[in-house]
Amino acid sequence: MMNFQDVANKILNECPTASEMQIYGFGSLLKKGHGVDIDLLVVCDNKTKTKRLEAELGNRCFELPLHVTILTKLEEYETNFIQEQNCIALARLAKHRDNP
To answer: Which of 53, 70, 87, 96 has a CA-to-CA distance to 44 between 20 and 30 Å?
Structure first.
């Protein structure tokens, strides 16, 4: 399985809509370096905007075992999901690869 930096680069490079969304990584692959799936959080204004991203992920990243959680900004604020799950922005993960 790919590491999270490779996943972040693949998604950001191959899914144009990803740059328009707030996407975070979390879960066992990020924390421990291994896991069954790749946990992603997408935070958006409203969930209808995520359909295009879901299609891109399905078409361009189909080989990855993605588990995508979608929350509106209000839902994230109410649950404090980013902080509670120690989420890290995909853009930061992708940059981290270039600067170990």
So the answer is: 96
